[in-house]
## 1
Amino acid sequence: MKKKLSLLLALAMAMSLTACGGDKGSAESNKPTESAPAVSAPASGDKVVRIGVFEPSTGDSGPGGKQEMLGMQYANHETPTVEIGGETYTVELVPADNGSDSAKAPTAAAELVSKDVSLVLGSYGSGVSMAGGPVFDEAGLAAIGVTCTNPGVTAGNDYYFRICFLDPFQGTVLANFAKDKFSAKKAYLLGELGNDYDQGLLTFFEQAFTAAGGSVVKDSFPPNTADFSTYLNKAVAEGCDVVFCPVSIAYSTQIVKLAADMKLALPILGSDTLDSNMVLEAASGSDVKLYVSTFYQEGGAPEFDSGIKAWLASDSTAMTNNGGNDTIAAVTAMGYDAYYTALEALKAAGSTDKAAVKAALPNVTYTGVSGAIAFDATGDAIRDTAYIKMANTADNTWTFEAMQTAK
Amino acid sequence: MQYAISIVLSGISLGGQYALIAIGYTLVYGILRLINFAHGDVFMVAGLIMVYLTSFLAGTLPTGAAIFLSLLLMLILTVALGFFIERAAYKPLRSAPRMSVMISAIGVSYLLQNLATYVTGGLPKTYPSLPLLSETITIGGAPTKWVTVITPFLVIALVLALQQLINHTKVGMAMRAVAKDFETSQLMGIKINNVISMTFVIGSALAAVGSMLYFTNYPSIVPLSGALPGLRAFVAAVFGGIGSIPGAVVGAFIVGMSETIIKGSPWSIFSDAFTFALLIIILVVKPTGLFGEKVTDKV
Amino acid sequence: MLKEKKSKTGVFIALVCVAVLLAVAIILENTLDPTKNTIFFTVLKKTAVYALVACSMNLLNGFTGLFSLGQAGFMLLGAYTYAILTIPVAQRPAVYYIYNGSAINFSLPELFGGGAVGLILGVLAALILAGVVAAAVAWLIGLPVLRLKSDYLAIATLGFAEIIRAIFQWDALGPVTNGANALKNYPTFSSFNIKGADGAVTVRLSIFVAFLLSAVCIAIILLLINSSYGRAFKAIREDEVAAEAMGINLAKHKRLSFCISSFFAGVGGGLFAMFANQAQAKTFTTAMTYEILLIVVIGGIGSISGSCIAAFLYVACSEWWLRFLDNEITLKSGFKVPLLRNGFRMVVFSIVIMIVVLFFRRGIMGDKELPDLFRKRKNTKAKGGEGNG
């Protein structure tokens, strides 16, 4: 009897929690509505438009996701309101952590759908974007991928757009760069086993590189590997001319640090993930030759640079999330552009209705700090150039190296 | 040649670091018959403690003193953590089935990882570089760190000391007695809880030293940093015969060497899988491991 | 005689419960606002999947007493089998874009003639095959591994799961497994929604399908547990030596339990692929096995209904109800709630789990089932009646 009672009680509690869960979205979102005008923009009305931020803040893509989110937060700080259909709306960012895990991405995506956002930005990492994509698709909610470069994100999904270039493009660009700059004959390719981002880039690099007459040695390391010395020594022993390692930030700091310690003479090529101040920090003071392809070059938009640096200096949490200093990562610039692209879409739609936003998105164009943004038929950004930067290890900055296009 | 030397060097240093973790597994398993899944995470937390201590102390003390003091504090805190985990999570379950204790261990591991994610904010932390240990030397043309050279000697010294402790002190005798027969030793007046705590203290202290060596070599710490070395060290402990300290050390060196050799071969993607294949083969062919004693089940 | 009657009422009650649940699933999904409640629906679907996998693990760990940690590996086998067999042929070049198309060029739903019938038959066949593949691999693994005792078995199965994962991520198998890339565009739960002529959804059946598939499998597990095989499993759990002395063939029964458990883990993997909209080997980690193990423990080791209830509570807590802990909340008075920050949700959650593991060792249900609770009430009533009479 007692057991049954307790069970009933538990059930009742579960039910009430469920009920609360349903209302919580609206309850929570009301709160900032009341407080926001007082804090940021007294002139704005009470109307709120919500933009979902679908980013990892834990897991192995956590650092990158946070930096991408910083761009959006800064943009939101800079422009907290938007004119939609003649009325001023306060923009509220609604984050949901997908934990860098495709198993948790559908629930995180569903969380955003439930919170009634008008459109979604993200995610850093293609795997989670592909797992969340169908949820958005089903809900009729448009999503703008910021730096998810896998072709599978937008292919076959009408509701996923993106503002960055794609893996085939980036892989080819870096292969061309290796050929042009170092006249490389043999490349050592290193990626994480089972990571679609790494493996995709390796494949496209290999295709372009071998097509141009080079040869490659390809290796994959299991997740959570910390000892990369064998791999780098292998690259030297095999007589490779360059190392290409498009891996996530946690691994790339290890690899770059190791290369610095063992005084590796080979140049290291990296993809957009390596464009992070944490990687730069690892290379600091050594003679590692580190080149990365990226979306944005610091100094390209001085106003944005100085603005975000001042913001970072004023917000210690943001500074920590940026890795403790104020070098601007490309993903941050992309997050910033994504936010403004979203505002453009809202303006063009003339309403906060998600269907209207989706209908307006394909024709939205915006010139951001990372260049001009426009979408093609599949929803991908029309971009034909990538910046290649070199790590200046003496004073911890990136130096512009080349503009590279895929031929 | 230079490549071969570099593989051997990195194999030996990995092996030494695994050995220090493996001893913790083997001691605990010998006494409690528990795979302490949280041990790898204690190792990771030891690394994080060091990171935070040095950055905290660096401002107030000269560098050398700060590093030394943080090493000392790190050792003490890690030992305290190991002790606390045993008291909080394993002791209440002493009479419960073995599966419950193992699940509790998994729970502690989960908690430590999530806690680390929360504290670090999911960002990789860089281990402070220690004087001497972090400096680079070149052996036979292969550049490496001093820690690589020191590791095997330090491990052997620690193991010899541990052997002395176990074979020639009262506590050691109690530990051996408890490992042999839990209940009888209780009847003989051995304070079982103290012995078990002692085991965890020794295990955690060695894990702390291991973390210092490991993270000096591979200086980036993420919440999952402990999982893989932990699992590999456990394989090493099983390989050498669980409950046997020399076995754990030999097993660790074998696991470390074979891991690096596979990484150097074209089959590098199976370096993890190979470790587990090795485990399964040894379990099936010789379940007691290289040095383990045969145990017969009593009905 | 009396006992038989009792178990019949138990089965009857269970059937009624399931029928009510399924009906509620359909009603909820079609009446509630689909946008506001997406998170609720998604949690329900994940619950259905995890409940099945937890039950399969419970069969092995709770009823047979074999402590295996290979569940994620078998789910991986099931998920990949299901996905590879059901991706439409036209979609294959896009999915396998790195390998210039797939080595396997048929799709079960299309083989069965496409349309609604083809979809149902194809998905069912693919799910059954997913289970069969997992069971076959389990049989092979079981040959050497099942001779091991308790925690050795656990660590060996855990190792096998890792090996399976590495093999599926191997580039050389890419034309079949798609290497590191995800498999996608196959039928998911949402494919079962009935659409009108204009493409808009008229009747939503996605949760119903998830619940139905999962419930049928769990029912089979229940029937198995209540059969003579189930009693043999329990005997092995209680005491291997005694069970052997009573004439139970240990090797055979252990293998049987291991294969059946893996079969349902495989089916569960297929369902998981349907839930997650994509199948990718890196999802099926040891951490996933631990999650499922924790569900089993919270529900009560040896209780099927406990596993189901715990699956819901676990999924809902970790991914929905506690999510607010991840964001900073500033109260109206300007008071900033301390500690709330990214990752706090999982800390709170793991503390809750530790409390359950340490202080409520028997979990929600212990080794009881839901109908047991009703039965007890009946007994007391009957007794009361006697007293009156």
## 2
Amino acid sequence: MRHFEIPPEDAEDILQDAQLTLLYKWEQIRSPESWLVGTLKKKCIMYWRKRRSSLCDAVDTAILDLVATPVAPDQEKAELSFDLNRVLGNLSARCRSLLKLRYGLGYGPSEVAEQMGYRLSSIRKVTNRCLAALTRQLVAVGFHREPEGD
Amino acid sequence: MIERHPSTERLRSFSRAELSRHQNREVVRHLLTGCERCARSLAAYAPPGIGVARTGPSPHDYDGVFAKARQAFLWSQHEHLEEQRNAPSLLAALEDHPFDRQVLLLMNSRKFWTWPLCCLLLDRSHELGFRDPGRAVDFARLGVRLSEQLSVESYGDTRVADLRARSWGTLANAQRIASDLRASDQSFLRAERLLRKGTGDPLEKARVLLLKASLHGDQRRFPEAIKGLDRVLAIGRRHGDDSLAAKALVKKGMVFGTSGRTDEAIDCLREGLRGIDPKSDPRLAVAAHHNLIVYLIEGGQLQEAVALLDATRPLYEEMGDRMNLIRLQWLEGKIAQSRGRLSEAEALFRSVGTALAEQGLGYDAALLALDLAGVYARQGRTEEMRALAAEMLPSFQSREVHREALAALIVFQKAAKMDRVTLGLVHELSDYLRQCRKTPGVRLRDSV
């Protein structure tokens, strides 16, 4: 828990959930200690993975909402476009192109895949990586990092 | 709107994706302006890989977490122990009734809807296994029905999904033993779907994979069986579960043996046996030893087979299970036959034949008769061979036996009538009948 730095309010849920599972499966588990350690480790990893994915989804939805707002005055639109381009400018060329298609032209995943030459089955993974890079940029935009996303 | 900084609390909620869509939009719009102050503040809450990597000791104190978890655990443990104590009497109350009534009781009375009772039903199905396949299926069905009644609020949705998966896996295994391979396949599909909704516990997955490998073995889908068992082996080793790893090795040995790869079967069984504690799992220990002895005999390693049989005899006797003792005697007959002590082999086979007939195990009795036919063939006793063949067919016809197996026995009977039974034919028919038992539809070789 300490190693994964899980916030205490969530650590409580994770620990109790793992303990309850151990209790119910006690007779099937040969080595309770290593089972509990392994399960907690996995749950901590899953916890952060889920948090990362929810945060990236929240950023994505917010930007899609912002660019789709129909009544935004021209100046506001221009400012949004400027700010978005500035953040995208710090991403890799691949992610920049992908997210410009997504936010600038309103392309759906299948259209992005077709335009960029990806298989439909892999576009979701690539998009998720680019969204993570974008979210990292938002959190670190004041630090002027090198282009990322590849 | 853009210039106003979100509060620290709002940034924290944003990092946890807990804001409304509108609030979310406001925070993101603000961050897009490149506000260094808010970015820094958010970085402290953001998940690793998004936020800034922290160094030094953890800022959190977990003492309270452990104290609360311990309290909650003790309370749950108290409730669980109470349910465990009541489960045997609930099972006894159910067992007094026929299956249809048992289902009715289970569905209508909440007192039965407990986790430990479900586990007991599944254990009972497992115990009955080969002894009474029909009842094993019934108990597994009850387990499935009960698992569907369990409260997800009390036990947790993912844990209940795990138990439902285990129930379907147990039913699938019982159906396999009862030779209903199609139903078994379907039940395994249900089990796997439920596992995906479960806790993700790899040991739970391994248990289903282990059972499914037996189905693949029976279906003669050997590569799939071996692949599944290798996954179980890896999970067992990774989680320090020696017993699980040993089970996977023993089963792998049996699959290799059935597919005719005797040397690999012997290697796997030897390695698997090293991880089995006969005290905690005597049934598995006997099964593993038994199969190893069979493959050693088949592989011509008679001396080692005899030594191992002598060493294992106390375990067979300790188990006291009638079927295991019959199997022991059958093995002794095979060893006597392989050593050329044909009179001793004949006497042992005859005794085993009587015991199998008493148990109503017609198929095994026919397989045994073929071993006896092997003795006669070596001695050139054509008269006895004809009599034996004449006895076998009616015994098979009176039972539910695949038509392919009957056809094979007719071939044997005709060959006996014409005094054309050879050792080769006996072995071929014996192998064929073993395959037919699990996989109806296998063709007898044209040459035969």
